[in-house]
Write a structure and sequence with these properties.
homotrimer; 337 residues; alpha/beta; Rossmann fold; 4-stranded parallel β-sheet
Chain lengths: 337, 337, 337
């Protein structure tokens, strides 16, 4: 695809070469995100960071990524504070807000809303999650993390074995990620979930059609075996009709040190889109794995900044200018790793 | 008036020459707002963008206008998150907050609140709407749009015919706009509303006293005839005692393609302060006019950025320095017009 | 203490020499906060300004302090909009958010929460209030104000007489301030409160152990006598079980012009952490003192910016570089003092 000026709405926009391009640019962002250097390439540019659904990490991650490139961020964090509650159409909102900024990031609880908004927008729109539908930057940062983790084990993505665990029905991250992974070759997907929360049939079929192996199971112990990656998810309580209904499934599949040691291949990468639910009754990914070297969950969020910087640099067409405006960082940047 | 350091609280502060001055400065902001060039004239300055009432477009428009001049923005978006709920007076809030920034934009649900706040402020305060009372930057952007639209038809504001339609009782935009228009000569105002939502008597009298013609009517079809501008408004539901009371009037006056073609003079400019209520039961300005060249509603919001940039540049006294700090824009700026 | 890279969680971290160092740096920030000059020393740095409890003044004060040093600010203002409501631990939130910014300011309703968060953070964390527990930057700005006010009366902190009045049980500001003041010599504390809202016993004991004189009383008139400083506080309604319970105490201790003139020594400095509750039923500090030269409450909030700039400059280790990036301010900065 041609990135400059494009909307990023769905992982289905990407071919494998596009993903490679994004990851190459993300690699180049590392010294800036790690504060070894700074750049002002987007000095004067404005991001409209529009979140019409609760979010901390994604919103701040996008905002910081834009700041790290030198740009300014204007924000909306509350649907109640918005004209949408006064009966305004997404078309009007899109047309108006796109007159205020150079690029827009948008999250909205309704599937398809961001695409509808983008049709009226005169500037690029990046989908930061439209309800249960898509969350392309999350899928990209997940895949980027998979690539980096496997690379450090001298492996590639092609041929890998990945297990996805939990609420595979409502989790938009596993939907988008499996679509993206399917661009690669000969993947083995093990989908572990209660039957009622299994991966939508059309996604499973698509994966098989593209030549991948898909195993669906409710047996976590067995399903964990022989994977390179295990990807856990939270029960998406907010997508259920009632909290009670969500409670039925909460805590059903849990990974902790004991289970990991017993069933997982050594060095299996542990991933989670976060937030993980650490309450007693859920605890899908136990804190006793926090110091485990294969726990990649915080590398995922760190990588999110790189991938989002890459998306901004590509859609605003400044990739080749990042270094020109770079300079040394003059404040304390030692990190406690 | 002398702009540097002044509060902008009410359209009644302005003489015609002041309006002309603001519009001249707004014209000069066009290349910066359209991203043909960028300026850092307010690099280092801080705007306190204080919204104690829901707003997206006005808040973001002011914030972006300040960013476009190179300044930083600190924001408050929620009255619940504020000290006002702990019994703090507007005087204290004004005195304290004015120690944090170089200029303040404020919206508050209570008439007169912004003026009260400004009396304690040591920095300029711009009124972004104080309940049903005033919203001067909206009136200015409306009049600026009228001027530009008529100019493209080789007309001026003097002698124009304007119809205002809808909730003329609660709509602060039509109050402020008519006051501002009254600075010009020989205007014909046609005020179309249910009797219960008619323009306040003192405003009508003032318009007549200044030599303008005012027609009040409930007959929309007839009222639409012979105008240069038709200005529609939303039923201000939040100003009614109950939603039910608002519902009585919702959808009573609607403009769509068929009505426009039948009753309006060709090229009549269509305006609306936005948000328009596009729900079935309201729909005061139909989407079937979205592609109409005389629909100026999105040019209004675009112009809002120019006018707000002008107000900042004038009150902070940097008009003559804008170009000095200007340079080329280096990112993708092609707009989909 | 060694400031670069340190968390600022509690006043108990400081020795007297640390306080002196902070105040020296704060003094140097004056020309920048007063807009006589500007600096870009933190150009490119990002503050994560995370408020999980309502706050306007503290949040904006920290944000502006960072902007005044040239840095960018990303913000969280609502606990409902956060992953904490999805069961995320403070550890996870801390670890993730610290990957997004160079420094974090955090407020949270729960005592100890900020310290817990900081243990996972890889960047410095400044405590902006953890429930009833600590609020170190407030204590520092209060003490800084005391120092400046007494200095203008040719006095020092050692040997001063200070009265603290109101809800001394829940007011974290008086807890932190008295701890900080106790680093100095031979202070006389007069603690005026209803018995039920008196200063926690362990704090009183600590003050006595360090050689200070502590008088506890319910008699305000008598307690006001012979002080250099009177420090009033608001009833911390949000810390009571019910509003009714808070109402019992509201308005019990009030300072106004008449009482001040009758009982206080001339020139006694009047302080309050703000917001003061100006509702009829509370009104702990009357507006009839607003023009009194000894009313230091707004000098307190102004000083807050200086102290917070100092904390940022010290923890990010840029104190010696502030002037290097300084330049003249080019916009209107006349203040109405």
């Amino acid at each position: 695809m041609h990135f400059p000026g494009s909307h990023i709405l769905s992982v289905s926009q990407f071919e494998r070469s596009d993903v490679d391009r994004i990851f190459d640019v993300a690699d180049g962002m590392r010294p800036y995100a790690h504060r070894e250097r700074m750049t002002k390439v987007l000095d004067g540019a404005i991001l409209g960071n529009m979140f019409f659904e609760p979010s901390t990490r994604t919103r701040v991650s996008f905002g910081c990524a834009f700041n790290l490139l030198g740009g300014e961020v204007r924000e909306t964090t509350d649907i109640k504070a918005s004209s949408l509650t006064k009966g305004e159409s997404l078309y009007d909102t899109g047309r108006v807000m796109s007159g205020y900024s150079d690029i827009i990031v948008m999250r909205h609880p309704q599937a398809g809303s961001v695409a509808e908004f983008s049709r009226a927008s005169r500037v690029p729109v990046l989908n930061a999650g439209d309800g249960p539908n898509e969350h392309p930057s999350q899928a990209l940062l997940d895949l980027y993390t998979i690539k980096k983790e496997l690379m450090s084990r001298d492996q590639g993505i092609d041929g890998m074995h990945i297990a996805m665990i939990g609420d595979l029905k409502h989790g938009r991250t596993v939907h988008s990620l499996s679509q993206l992974v399917s661009l690669y070759n000969k993947i083995r997907f093990t989908l572990i979930s209660p039957k009622e929360l299994s991966m939508p049939e059309e996604i499973v079929e698509e994966l098989r059609k593209r030549g991948h192996q898909v195993i669906e199971t409710e047996d976590m112990e067995h399903g964990l075996e022989g994977n390179d990656i295990v990807y856990l998810t939270r029960i998406q309580e907010e997508r259920f009709a009632t909290k009670m209904e969500a409670d039925i499934y909460r805590g059903r599949f849990r990974l902790n040190q004991a289970i990991y040691t017993r069933y997982c291949r050594p060095n299996t990468v542990i991933m989670h889109p976060l937030p993980r639910d650490s309450r007693e009754e859920a605890n899908e990914l136990d804190n006793d794995l926090n110091q485990h070297p294969s726990l990649a969950i915080f590398r995922q969020t760190d990588n999110g900044v790189l991938v989002r910087m890459a998306l901004f640099a590509l859609t605003l067409d400044v990739v080749n200018q990042v270094e020109k405006t770079a300079r040394e960082v003059n404040w304390y940047t030692e990190r406690r790793f």
